[in-house]
Structures are given as C-alpha cells and as structure tokens.
Automatic annotation (TrEMBL):
Pfam families: cobW, CobW_C. Residues 1-31 are annotated as: Disordered. It catalyses: GTP + H2O = GDP + phosphate + H(+). GO terms for cellular component: cytoplasm. Residues 275-371 form the CobW C-terminal domain. This is CobW C-terminal domain-containing protein. One of its GO terms (molecular function) is GTP binding. Gene3D superfamilies: CobW-like, C-terminal domain, P-loop containing nucleotide triphosphate hydrolases. Keywords: Chaperone, GTP-binding, Hydrolase, Nucleotide-binding, Zinc.
C-alpha cells in the first residue's frame, strides 16, 4: 500500500461544539497570548507525508499537536482559504482526539477560520501541523499563514517541511530538468525550510553511501537554506521539524548561520539554468528605500526575467546601527530591523535567492544601485 494511502490512527470523534471564550479569557491582556506555530507538510505523491503524520499522531511525545488535513480541491483554490464561511459554511468535516493528546481534523473550505476555531477549541496546543493533500505548491498557503492579519493573534507560520522519496527523487527531478515548467518536486524543495529525505533504506540496499550524499547535494543545489534530514518511514526527532521559527524576524541567529553557509554560492557552480540557489555579498551600506524598490522590481515586476521563490538575507542599512533581515515568499516580503550589529561582526549585505532563471551578475549590478 502506498505511503499516502495508509490507514489513519485510531481516534474518537469529538462531539462537543466550540466553546465561546469566557469573560475572564476575554479580559486577559492581548500581549499575554502566545501564538501557536504552524508547520506546513508537503511532498511529492508517495514520498511519505501521511507516514510522517501517522508517526506523529501515534508517537508518545508528550506534546499536544493538532494535525489538519487540508482537502482543498484545485477548483476551490487557496484564495478561498481567507473567506469567512460563517456558521452555515462547511468548515471541518471531522474533529478527532487521539489517546496521546493529539487532535486531528479535515478541512474542506475556510482554512483560516478552521485554524482560529482549533485554537479556541483547545485550551493548550503546542503546535499545529498542516498536511497539504490537494495543493502541490506550498507558496500561496505559506503567504496566507505568514502575513494574514486575521491570524496574527492566534497562529504563526513556523516552517515548511517537504518529504521526498530518496529512491525516486533523482528520476522526478531529471524528468523535468530541461522543461520550462517545473513540477511539484522542484517547487516543494525550493520552498522548504526542512527536507526529510525519506526511504533512505531503499537506496542503501542498492547503492553506496555516496548516492545519499549526491541526493543531498542535489537538494542543496536547489535550496541551500534547507536542513536535510535522512529518515526511514519518516521516523524523525520532532525537535528537528517543530519550532524552527523560520519566518520569525526576531529569530536572526539561525538565519545568519544559514547565510554564512551559503555565502560562497555562485551561479558559476550551477549545473543548469533551472531552479537553484545563489548568494550575493556586498559590504557597502544601502539606502533602505532604494533596497525596497529594488526587491519590489525583482519580486513584483519580474523586471529582469527572474522568478524568485524564496529570498532571505541580512542588510547593512545606512545611518542605522541595526542589522535588518529580509525575507520573501514569492511576491510577499518584509525588511525589518532585528538587533544591533555586534562589535566583532563585519557589517555587510548577504542575500540568498532561490528561484528559476536567476542571474548573479544582474542581481549584483542592480543591488549596487541601492548604495
């Protein structure tokens, strides 16, 4: 039986309705509320998404984790996720509570409302997992969760986790490498913060350890910022996929470490002009207004013919002692001051781009116009 067709874990249906917040809860200061992190789980058909979800739902991890099975059809589209269907709308097909404290549900229409309902329904949640079953490209969903005003007080996007099949990944990538359009396998890796390289036991039975290293290099050539975890049947340490804070502007330490690892990337190292990662480094301080116009030309206007999927960086801004972080998913981006530069640090601009048809020379030359 295919991984994505596995039977769900045993569960008991919850018949209770959502309780309205008590008066004491309503009177609590808003800043005492802690947002619940949402991890989006995606992956190519058969890679093992459902295996990962079932592992989490059955494991004795001591965490209260809600798992949302997102059944948006292509005819509905993620835009409908932000529509408030009201009491008459079909929100959730089923809520179930598991013996280990986890909660599982199936969403049909309004994802945003379902998330808010879930947070209200459970007094204490450690995390929320959202498995995308009907959407191949996680970018629109990430955009909704990252910066949607309706969700700011309740939930926050923590990271995107992509499950890939170690045995079939190379075939899936090579089949479309020379194509002008890229399938789920490329896009899901490009948008990932964590890649679970699943079914490594099937590879090691037929090939050497070097084959797995080559696969990891292949993944990093597409997305150098992703953390790759090897697994068998998606049995992973949950601390490696939960609470990554990948979209938290104040969580700059991990971002800086990723950028340091990626600083030597150059388009000269790329095997082809497909989906890839490259990094630009400049030492001169930039004008913040010009930097915003520059990134908007690239992301919004696609002025230089580049299709940027993800972008992360740190900026040295003129007349400021603050390190600024840059993050972008497709057309949505933010540049925010994060902390003061440390005395021992070399102040510079370092930006990593993940996308299609990236041109290092154009990026460097146009970025100099921000100085």
């Amino acid at each position: 039986m295919a991984d994505d067709q596995e039977e769900p874990p045993l569960a008991i249906r919850i018949d209770q309705t959502v309780e309205e917040p008590s008066q004491s809860d309503q009177e609590k200061p808003q800043n005492d509320y802690v947002s619940v992190g949402v991890t989006v789980i995606t992956g190519y058909l058969g890679a093992g998404k459902s295996t990962l979800v079932n592992y989490i739902l059955n494991a004795q991890h001591g965490k209260r984790i809600a798992v949302i099975l997102n059944e948006f059809g292509e005819e509905i589209g993620v835009e409908r996720a932000m529509i408030n269907e009201g009491e008459s709308g079909a929100l959730v097909e089923e809520w179930v509570e598991l013996a280990n404290g986890c909660v599982c549900c199936t969403v049909k229409h309004s994802l945003v409302q379902a998330l808010e309902q879930l947070v209200q329904m459970k007094k204490k949640l450690d995390h929320i997992l959202l498995e995308t079953t009907g959407l191949a490209n996680p970018a629109p969903l990430a955009s909704v969760l990252w910066l949607d005003d309706q969700l700011e007080s309740s939930v926050k996007l923590d990271s995107i986790v992509t499950v890939v099949d170690a045995k079939n990944l190379r075939f899936q990538l090579n089949r479309h490498r020379d194509s002008s359009s890229f399938p789920e396998a490329f896009l899901q890796i490009a948008f990932a913060d964590v890649v679970i390289l699943n079914k490594v036991d099937l590879v090691s039975q037929e090939q050497s350890e070097g084959a797995l290293e080559e696969l990891e290099n292949e993944i990093h050539s597409i997305n150098s910022l992703a953390n790759v975890i090897r697994s068998i049947r998606c049995e992973v340490d949950l601390s490696q996929i939960l609470n990554r804070q990948a979209y938290d502007a104040t969580h700059a330490t991990h971002l800086e470490a990723l950028l340091e690892e990626s600083k030597s990337l150059s388009s000269g190292d790329l095997h082809d002009s497909g989906v890839c990662t490259l990094c630009i480094n400049q030492t001169a301080a930039v004008n913040l207004h010009k930097a915003r116009l520059w990134i908007e030309e690239i992301l919004w206007d696609k002025k230089y013919g580049m299709d940027v999927y993800r972008c992360k960086g740190v900026l040295r801004v003129g007349n400021s002692d603050q390190l600024h972080t840059l993050q972008a998913v497709r057309e949505i981006y933010e540049i925010v001051p994060t902390r003061q530069w440390r005395n021992e640090e070399k102040q510079m601009n370092r930006i990593v781009f993940i996308g299609h048809n990236l041109d290092e020379n154009i990026l460097i030359d146009t970025f100099r116009g921000c100085i």
